[in-house]
UniProtKB/TrEMBL annotation:
Cellular localization per UniProt: Membrane
Domain MARVEL: from-to ranges: 27-151
Mode of membrane association: Multi-pass membrane protein
Species, as recorded: Amblyomma americanum
Protein name: Putative conserved plasma membrane protein
InterPro entries: Marvel
Keyword match Transport: no
Entry's transmembrane regions: 27-49, 61-81, 93-114, 126-147
Source taxonomy: Eukaryota, Metazoa, Ecdysozoa, Arthropoda, Chelicerata
Main location: membrane
Gene Ontology cellular-component terms listed: membrane
Keywords assigned: Membrane, Transmembrane, Transmembrane helix
PROSITE patterns according to UniProt: MARVEL
């Protein structure tokens, strides 16, 4: 006697489309991802302080630099979070140059804002310049991790 087994698969479809959303948290929990999140937060803080307090050409320069850097950092975090296969961006030369120029531009902007201080400058201007220098230091650490890798 022979036994035949048949398998039936039923597929049901409804009228509403289902969107499958895949998230990738491996970049966000890595050292590079954490540093990128810190750079994003620092960029928003520097931008807010410059917008509120820092005037003059150096304040506008730091405002524009911080805006550009926190926006690109947001794009990097967002694309890494929604990438199903992980991001290849941290392995590119663009990413390295992004952080090298972040060091130069944030340091120049922070120093320029702090150099134009006088006794009537609001404390927010001092904070904007100091946070710009802290953002530059964060980019230095990021470049060190990119260059040396996990051996650092």
């Amino acid at each position: 006697s022979t036994t035949t087994v048949r398998q039936t698969t039923t597929v049901t479809s409804g009228s509403s489309p289902v969107v499958a959303l895949s998230v990738n948290t491996s970049f966000l929990t890595s050292i590079g991802g954490i540093l990128t999140l810190i750079e994003l937060i620092l960029g928003i803080i520097v931008f807010s302080l410059c917008y509120q307090y820092a005037g003059g050409h150096s304040g506008i320069f730091l405002l524009l630099i911080s805006f550009a850097y926190w926006l690109v950092s947001f794009y990097i975090v967002f694309s890494a979070f929604l990438s199903a296969s992980g991001t290849l961006l941290p392995n590119t030369f663009f990413y390295f140059l992004f952080h090298v120029f972040g060091i130069i531009l944030y340091a120049a902007g922070g120093i320029a804002v702090l150099a134009q201080l006088n006794r009537f400058s609001p404390s927010g201007t001092i904070a904007a310049g100091a946070m710009g220098l802290i953002a530059a230091i964060c980019h230095v650490v990021h470049v060190a991790f990119i260059y040396k890798g996990p051996k650092l």
